[in-house]
């Protein structure tokens, strides 16, 4: 068995009673460029973007911290049952689409493990017993569901949000978590004077709270816009961009 975990936080609390190897997806593909013809090209693009956007990251870190776990996924044998531990927010969903696309030729069974908490809590709000139960309740993905999730990655890369919306609506009975995430993606796209829902939401929260305190703003954003699943680094970048744009005006 191979358990693909979306981030180190879940890895830190992962029950030792659940057997199998672990691969951690240390990416935030919802943030930055993703259009590439191959995994190698994508790795170069991502390493460059993340090291430039987040100075604490580096291209060397990407090669040592991210790539080895992606290789565990790519080299999973056909006898390996793969358990995908991903939440329903956009951040996690984009990473899920990517991983399922990596596994499009995998002949073994894929299982989706979902949290039983809400979008705000996710796996982080579950104790060891609840995580063990989530593993036992894992849903096997049908060939059609695998195909759809893999296609979502290609649509995200293009990007073609209109086609993704259509597809997500069509498969709502089988994959009910898909459409809300795709709708959040659509709402995040700026057009005209509209900055996209995340930035507009930050402006609204700052005005309502009458504060520039990022800690307070982030906590409110995390609750109100949990569908995005952004971490503090992503929200901080958006907040800094907002402040910079305000100064320019």
Give a short overview.
With 249 residues, this protein is α/β, with parallel strands linked by helices. It has helices at residues 8-13, 39-53, 59-74, 90-102, 128-136, 143-157, 161-170, 178-187, 197-209, 214-224, 232-248, and strands spanning 2-5, 21-24, 82-85, 110-113, 139-140. Strand 3, helix 4 (90-102) and strand 4 form a beta-alpha-beta unit.
Average pLDDT taken over every residue: 95
Strands of the largest sheet, in order across it? Answer: 2-1-3-4-5
Strand content: 5-15%
Number of strands: 5
Q: Topology as H/E string?
A: EHEHHEHEHEHHHHHH
Helix count? Answer: 11
Calculate Rg over CA atoms: 18 Å
Q: What is the CA–CA distance across the termini?
A: 54 Å
Shape: globular
Largest sheet composition: 5 strands, mixed
Question: What share of residues is helical?
Answer: 40-55%
Identify low-pLDDT runs: none
* Structural class by helix and strand composition: alpha/beta
